[in-house]
């Protein structure tokens, strides 16, 4: 039976399931490994970043199984010590800046789903709707309920308009 390459991961739960076993599956060929990086380089001539980008995996997670990750020797104390050492040596000031990678697909979807106070998903049309309701005299809470968004999302926008009204008085 031939291996069918899957689509990129869409949820955090699917990614957690992928990494949760004693081995992880290469999504290119279907073989199982404890650590995937060397296999990708040797058999598929692919870097881990290319693989993560193609399948929507998080950049911060290594391509190792849960079992291998657990037994890697990196305890919380060891991570804290390494982090302290890096700050002390000014490693981050002296390291060259890496180009920023796009967020994984599931992170983008989560961000849209949980739009917060600094949400970038709202455009000029949303601003106009908020302003129209604000001019009618509605409170931030009422506007938020009408538009089905967080109250603070509305508050960040109406705060500017409230400041202008005070200056006119």
Describe this structure in words.
- The chain has 169 residues and is mainly α.
- It has two domains: 1-94 and 101-114, ROS/MUCR transcriptional regulator protein (Arc Repressor Mutant, subunit A, Orthogonal Bundle), CATH 1.10.10.1550; 117-168.
- It is built from ten helices and two strands; from the N terminus they run H-E-E-H-H-H-H-H-H-H-H-H.
- The protein has a two-stranded antiparallel ribbon with strand order 1-2.
- Helix 8 (124-135) packs across helix 10 (151-168) and helix 9 packs across helix 10.
| Contiguous runs where pLDDT drops below 50 for at least 5 residues | none
CATH superfamily of the largest domain: ROS/MUCR transcriptional regulator protein
Largest sheet: 2 strands, antiparallel
Strand order of the largest sheet: 1-2
CATH topology name of the largest domain, in short, is: Arc Repressor Mutant, subunit A
Number of strands: 2
Which word captures the global form? Answer: elongated
Task: Give the helix tally.
Answer: 10
Layout of secondary structure:
Layout: H1 12-19, E1 24-25, E2 32-33, H2 37-44, H3 48-55, H4 66-70, H5 76-88, H6 91-94, H7 105-113, H8 124-135, H9 140-147, H10 151-168
Antiparallel strand pairs: 1-2
Task: Summarize this structure briefly.
This protein has 169 residues and is an all-alpha fold. The protein has two domains: 1-94 and 101-114, Orthogonal Bundle (Arc Repressor Mutant, subunit A); 117-168. It has helices spanning 12-19, 37-44, 48-55, 66-70, 76-88, 91-94, 105-113, 124-135, 140-147, 151-168; strands spanning 24-25, 32-33.
